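As the next step, I needed to go through one protein, both as residues and as discrete backbone shape codes, included below for the reader:
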Amino acid sequence: MQRMVEPMRLCVGVTAHRDLVAAELDAIEAAVEGLFHELMAEYPDLPLELLTPLAEGGDQLAARVALRLGLPIVAVLPMEQAEYEKDFTDARSLDAFRSLLGQAENIIRLPAAPGNGAPPFTGAARETQYAQLGVFVSNHCQVLLALWDGKPGNKLGGTGQVVGFHLTAVMPGFEADSSPASLLADNENDLVFHVVCSRDRVDGQPAAGLGVGEAAWFSSRDGGARTAQLPSDYRAQLERLQRFARDWCEKEEVVTGNSSGLLGAAPDLPFPSGSELTDRLFRAADGLAVHYQKRVHRGLRAIHLLAMLMGLEFILYAEFDGPSYMVLLFLALFFAGVIIHLVGERHEWHRKYLDYRALAEGLRVQLYWNLAGVVDSVSVEFAYDNFLQQQDVDLGWIRHVMRRASLFRVRGENPDPRWVPWVIEEWVGDSATGGQGQLAYYARKEVENTARYQRTSRLGTMSLWAGIGFALMLLLMGGEGHAGTRQWLLILMGVLPLIAGIWDAYSHKRAEKELIKQYAFMGRVFGKARVLIDGNTDVGFQQRVLKALGQAALNEGAEWLLMHRERPLEHGKL
């Protein structure tokens, strides 16, 4: 199988002290190299990349190790290069910076932090730029590599504060955009790999209880307990990230056949940075979701059909005192259902269908927000941290995919405002036209699901009352009537309610009744958004509406995921 180099990677971000002790460098390099080897061995289908500011000291050390192992580096600069270079203490470290920068696969330059104005930056403004840098690295990596003495530190944007922000989403002295809900949520993006080091200064020894060169994993969970092995929750997250990359690689033709992406009919306008990558990720998630949805629905139909045949076969065997091979047929039908269930469980059809659909809907919002300029163009925060954050931590991998696209959105870049009307037509659309847009989609799905649910209800009602009718016929016949007729009436009396029950169970598994309400609700939300947009031609107002619409869509995606997670592909629990 070919190894996917991009667009999906596992990103290791670096925060490190500048003033490392020369005698400790070999031990630190060995620990960093050990981390890279561990991740490459655990996740061979998820290529590594290093996100680093390339500052002197630990940043450059980690970059050298990465390049020696053939890993790409992405440089992120807290300010323009000429301004940044003022902070290098000697010509040797500056030459190393320029050399490493020349080998970087990509260079990200952060704009002036809010309130800082134009460079040159001095004093508090300069510290704010470094605080912004630490927040960016923390928000856009899956693992934070900290070459750190273990002390909290009180310098704004320093290594200790960056580690603290990674754990708590709070950096004293720097106003981040985190919502109150995200501060209390179960954070998936707080994994730290700590390599202990000293600092070349007075009292530069590591914090008490830590030894130079020691390496350990920790997070905000379990009281910050340090472990030699990658914690199991985060291992599962990264494994799911790898499975997405692997599925994409192995099923590229399926992806191409099932999804055309969102930018196929894009106007002749310059694409905002990161939007084309977001569309590629959306296309992969959408195509895979359609693929696994088909598997799940076929499995559901097969299992419920087998259950109905088992019931029919049992009734026929009991009423006609059938031959012994009918027992074998009953068991064969049962185990056929078991096999379908086991195959679906082994290949995670249900889990992948739900996860990939939720990811696709998150990426849809991310792309349209990016195109329409909804997201703050300057903020270095990850704008979608609330998506699914109130759910299980194992869903965090979905946000990690979205972080990948967010990484390459250039801060300070404002998209062409002519994208706004295109986004409105493509995303919101108009239910009357029956064409593109979520309005038309929700209207169509509401009609389809309502018709399907009504058919199910009518069939169930008819089958149930027909069975009761046959029971009444038997009651009225008493002991009279032909024995064969009575026998068939008994069979029909049992089979028809059985059909009704299994059909109702199938409808419940597909959540048809709940989906009708959800489609109707979202149709009203998008309808109201369309009315507001049509009633006000101010682009800023339209962007506000699109932002509110995106939040509603993200919330709806989370609710949809939770609803369907309670209805897995099971056998024997109809």
Q: What stands out?
A: The first strand starts at residue 10 and ends at 16. The radius of gyration is 29 Å. Strands lie at 10-16, 48-52, 73-77, 106-109, 143-148, 192-196, 215-218. The chain has a mean pLDDT of 85.
